[in-house]
Every structure is written in C-alpha cells, then in structure tokens.
C-alpha cells in the first residue's frame, strides 16, 4: 500500500485556511510560551496556528517554511515555485498533508476545500477504502469498531479521546475481578509465579526489573541468557513488540506455557500487568525483541503452544496468529514522535493520538461525504501506516524493523 496516495493536487489554486490565525512564538501569552518552550529546540520552529473561536480546529505548531507558505497564500494562488523546488518528490505528499490537516485549502469548482471535505474528493479515487472493502481479520474488525466507538463519543479533547481508543476492548473491572485480584500478591498467585515450575523458570532464565518509571503498572523481567546491558524499555536496542492477548480467565492455564515458549526465544524483555486493571487490558502481556525476525520466531513457538486459547485482542496492532491472540507493533522513530514534553510514544499511543486528532477534526466538518472514522484512517495512511493490516509501511520505519540495509 502506498503511503497516503491521493490525486496530484499541485496544479490547484490554494488558499490559507481563514479559520486560523498565525501567531509568532514570541507573541504568545507567557503561559503558552512556557508550555511550548521545548519546541524552540527545533531551529525551524516559528509559532502556532491558533483556531479562531468556534472553528472546531486544533492548535498546530508550524515551522518557518509552513508559516511562510501560509502567509503567502493569504491571497489565493498557485503553489510558489520555491515550494516545489524545496520539497521535490515529496511536494504532493506534504501539500496534501497540509490540506487534510486544514492548514491549506484547495479550490474545486469555485469552492475552497480542506480537511475531510477535501479528502473525500482527492483521496477516494486513489485509495481502496476500508469502508467499502471486505474486512478480513479479527483485529482489523476490532480496530474499526474502536474507531466507530470513538466517533460516537462526541469528545472534543484529543487526549481524552486517544485514551478511550487506547483502552478499547478492555474487560470491565467488575466486583468479581476486584475480589479475585485485589493486589499484586494475588496477581502473582493467579499467574502461578510464586512457586512451582514458573518460579523455577523465572529464577533460571530471567531477572526481575524492579519498578523503574517506565515499568509502573507492570511485572517485568529481562533475559539472563541474552545479557542485561539494555535497560528495560531502551528504545535504542528494542525494536519490535509482541502482544499476547488471551482472555484473563485463561491466564492461570496459559501463562506457564507462554513463559516456557518465551524462554526458548530471543526475547529481551517481557512484562505482564501487575494488578487487576493491568490483567484486564487487552495488551496485558508484551514481549520485546531486537529484531522483527526474532519476534516472528517467538510467535511461531507461541502458536504451537497456545492453539485454541480464548482471545481478547489488541486493537491497532498487526495480526499474527489469525485469531487476534498474537499481534505486533513497532515504536515509531524518534523523528516521528509528538511534542517533546509528551515523551516517546509507544506504537499504540502514537496511533491513537493521531486518530483522535483526525476524528475530532472531521467531526466538526458537516459538509464532507466521509464519516470521521473514515477520514481518520485516510489521514493515518499519510503517517506511513497500513490501516488494513495495522503495520508500518513508510520508509522511515525501516530502521525500526531492521530493514535499513
């Protein structure tokens, strides 16, 4: 699948979106400058596009290049020659991004279009839409259900909506589970890791990771056999993650099988929820690998051990076992991360943050033919994600997948 393939828009007439005002960083209120100060680390940072009242748009940080283009197109016109020369082969891709994000609008039949209204026109003919094609996989269907659910909530805060998308398919914390798993000690008993064969295997093959900041909410171990030079969660050495998602009821039976299979592979680290909310989430168990090939080898072993295991399933991850039990993701490259104060995002958080922004933006546009969830899928394709398989598809992900050579 091509990354965000749409019609060539470069011969269009463009205009800056009048629903924004461009504000230089220096002229923002002091409290906003404090929040955004880390953006000054980018020497090309200019300021923000701030939505006018009741426009429904979100605040966007902009570079000097984007600011210059926005100012140039205050009067509608053709794309300046310097933009084509600067962007080269990326020009259509980058200008389409600005259109879909509502920064620019393009003229069609005397009307200026942006956001989801423009997407319905310029992208529909090029992409095989998930909305109209057959949904094949369990996790593909689950992810679409999550998006439709997110749309139905009518939320306007992207962080709140992203959290709801991220937590979709979580088992409710019922009185039953609160009684069965009241604390970390009962979770250890439930998993069978206090004594017996799991305990012996953990002592022989694994070193416990004791509550680093990145490990809050998890019981975590790292491999003795592969060495412990890399700290838990070190993104420089850990490239891919495997999600293991049995139903919580079945964990006492399958956790020893999972542990035994992982101990035969090149897993660097793994973690499992340490309390009832952690074991009820869909991504209740995650294993980390230095390469995609190592992950696939482990998945094959787990398939043999866990055949027929009841599945919960992790939305926005890539199917491996055909039934949602095993799936994978790869954390985005550093240059693809969000604002500096957010910290580096995991695969699923990176995805849900961007889907939430697109859902909210499209929900405010009542003129488009696309449903907001459909627009969110199209917009995410421009970030290099195949939204049928939920795999990274852009060239900027090749290093994370060990495909740089």
What does this 3D model show about the protein?
With 405 residues, the protein is of the alpha+beta class. Among the domains are: 1-127, no CATH class; 175-312, no CATH class. Helices cover 37% and strands 16% of the residues. It is built from 15 helices and 15 strands. It has helices spanning 30-36, 64-72, 81-87, 91-100, 115-122, 138-153, 158-166, 175-180, 184-191, 196-205, 251-262, 276-280, 292-306, 347-363, 372-381, and strands at 14-16, 20-24, 45-51, 60-63, 104-108, 111-113, 206-209, 218-223, 240-244, 267-273, 285-289, 318-319, 326-330, 385-386, 391-392. The strands form four sheets. Strands 7-8-10-11-9-13-12 form a seven-stranded antiparallel β-sheet, with helices on both faces. A three-stranded antiparallel β-sheet has the order 1-5-6. Strand 14 (385-386) and strand 15 form a beta hairpin. Helix 11 packs across helix 13 (292-306) and helix 14 (347-363) crosses helix 15 (372-381).
